[in-house]
Predict the structure.
Amino acid sequence: MPDEVFPQLIDTYYPALYRFALSLARNPADASDLTQQTFFLWATKGHTLRDFTKVKTWLFTTLHREFLGMRRRDWRQTPLEELPPGEKDPPALEANTVNQMDAPRILDALQELEPIYRSPLTLFYLRELSYQEIAEVLEVPIGTVMSRISRAKGQLRSVLAQKTTHGKIFEFPSQQRNQA
Amino acid sequence: MNQDEAKFILGVYRPDGRDAGEPAFSAALAQAEQDPALGAWLKREMALDEALSAKLGEMPVPDMREQLLAGVRASQRRRVWWRSTAWLVAAAVLVMLVGVFGRLRGGAAAGPVDLAAFARHDLATDSKDHLGSVPGLASLQQHLSDPATRLSAGLAVDLATLRQNGCRVVKVSGRDVYEVCFARDGEFHLYVAARSDLEAARAGLPPVFVTQGGLASASWSDDRYVYVAVTDRGADALGRVL
């Protein structure tokens, strides 16, 4: 694969890869590391990929595997959180309410989900990959992807609903601390 | 399909057409066209998804482009030469010769990659052995901590002086490696070894970044020395000091 492809690959995919990494790793330093490591692996192993149309899937898959590896190596940095079971009828949430929230607050809510739900939902909202590609990245059947996204949406809605009351948005404790 | 089943399927439908080819959606979409309540629910659901998707797309992304490109190009340079079978054979011979030479000298020669791996391991496992501030190295440590200092632009170090001034010395494959700690928005560790002791890459190449186990390292070399900088603050922070 010609070297001039690299800048194009980076320009095209690194923002989405970084956002995916940030939703998984929950902090910018680890997200940067995951993104860098993904491209490093591309530089050293990407030449073995014969089908260039699979580059995007390869990059997301590699980043996801690196995240799983990082979590195995240092589980304390990314603790798994137990969430209550998903509700059949999650709380109603309007698009207008979401529009009033800032992006980091949405990301905070997303990061409260368990990783097995957070990963497919982030890829769903990033809109970079088809369902088939998401299934390849997460290495699960497409039906499982859909089921997890459905459940994740309910969980995200519950988390967001907890952060809003009558359309007013509560401050996060961390934000209050920063302002103090 | 009942309404609950249709909602389950349509709940994961994205309105940008990306999923239009998925057969699971066509029947549910047709049902939503016939059922006004289901259609209204789908409209609200898609508006909410659109808002959430837009918010995620607004998340700021740090400017890592040049850092990523440098890392990729450095790795690519390291890889391309061995695509050739002739070079591969030549390299195998060279490795054998270096191995013999290394054994004659009392230990196998390490390269910058080995040194970087050692440095990350050293930082991860032997934190009590790092000296931190050393009076005899105060001037050098101050220079390294200066935000204006770019490590890869060239450092005025001398291994004999480092040893005289109390620098920590560790052995890697039987060779002396010197470590200096410094702080600059976080803790950093600089490892220096004589180029003649290592299988060093060509001097002047961009630093090679590796991140593993929460530690980031960058290795580079000049005419005299091989350097490895390590930190737990991530590759971004490392890139800023280089």
Observations:
- Residues 5-25 of chain A form the longest helix (21 residues).
- Chain A has two domains: 5-77, 95-165.
- The two ends of chain A are 53 Å apart (CA to CA).
- Chain A touches chain B through 54 residues (CB under 8 Å).
